[in-house]
Amino acid sequence: MSEATVGAHHGMARRGFLTGAAAVTGAALTSTAAVGTARATGTTTGTTAGNGTGPGTGPLAFTNVTVIDGSGAPPAPGMTVVVEGGRITALAPSARIRLRPGTRTVDLTGKYLIPGLIEAHTHSDGPESVVPALYALTGVTTVREMRGEPVHHEWREKIRSGELLGPRWVIGSPIVDGTPSLWAADVGPTIEVADAAEARRAVRRVKREGADFVKVYSRLSREAYFAIADEARRQGIPHLGHCPDTVRIAEASAAGHRTIEHLHALLLATSRHEKEIRRLLDAVRIDPRDPNSLSRYRSWFQQVHPLEWRAVRGYDRDRADALFRSLAAHGTAVVPTLSVHRTLELPDEVPTRAEEWKYLPAWQVEGWPDQLADLTGGRTPEQARQIRQIFAHRLRLVRELHGAGVRLAAGTDTGTGYLVPGFALHDELALLVTAGLTPGEVLRAATSDAARTLGLPAVGTVALGQAADLLVLDADPLRDIRNTRRVHGVVVDGRWIPPEERRRLLTAVEQAAATTPPPEDGAAMTGCGCGGHP
Asked: Are 532 and 301 in contact (CB under 8 A)?
């Protein structure tokens, strides 16, 4: 059988441009040690809030807060939100609500409460004592893992059992790609399929292994892709990811492709030169003997860049409108991942330092510039100019997708260099505003619209009966989306982490990162590696 798994399930041993750190088991950030001691600030009738703020410790009321519920409704000032048993059990104006005796209260006068944020595209990689907690402590209470590995399932089980602080985790399969894949064995498991029979076996296999969806990739043949779509439908498991080079987006959408990741394929599909470009894509080749994923991606980008530039120059608004109407009709969402596109397409604008980098191992951060240069170096001034225009065109596509009613979900491709878990999503929200969405529309892309995209009806809004995943902010995100970074406290599955406890936990993450040794076998590229052109 030619179906092959490229790379062993070696946890977090080999990593690089998309974060890289050996897996570390640490007790510093378990939910019992880290969350169970959090104190709710404020008082209730005759009762001072004390220890034990988890789902099983009785009701907790957040009072006098402005609620932005994630649905698009206007902000509601002066509200009380009651949380108990991991759910929102009451939601009403503070002046009219009557709390049960013994209810602990947190006075949030002047604060803003929004749903916990949802990160729809991650490749989480690094120490157990760092990565899961970073998501939660930055207000990212749900993540979708786009290349599932055993460690992600381990983290999810520890989070569910209360052993580890972290977000809800939706976990995909290993990447399912054609042969040869864009990924070599240096980055972990990839399933290569050459025909329909292997493609169907791959779907059955990943479902059996516990994946929540099938992650499809760029180099699949048409035969293999449509076999995956059919078998996924038979098996009751979604398929999503890259739209393969051999398949038109409209075809993929009609076949049930749940989300289109990144904006590569959309450039081609909205160009009057699409037919010609598709023919040229068929001629793109990857050397199967190349053991280095960075090298494979560099080769692919070098071949694809001129085609994307031709696509942009042939942009056809009528074709785009027709395609976007089709995507909206079929319910296919788009995850633009502007953050990774910007990193790899505008490398001159990448920061040389950022405060949040201290939460990752220094050896990892120090490797980013060389790794970025490996991917983007050697561009001529003319190529650099073209690529800047390609990025500007991506922003336009996001604006037009939204205007046509295509659902957008916020995702970053966290795991790529310069994107720190949790923090990166806040930057993605700002980029979506730059693309032309309002702050309110962007918040929906990271809350209710993302929840719908991920098939999670119990999260994404502040409403009665919903999961108690909440983010409390010091300033209004509808005035300035950058205010999502002004985190006051977070509620993670009903557990309140107030400001002082959050600061302590972030300090513990920083210390864990500082003591994480580099992997013995070095670091290699992982994640999607999408968005740029050398």
From this structure: yes
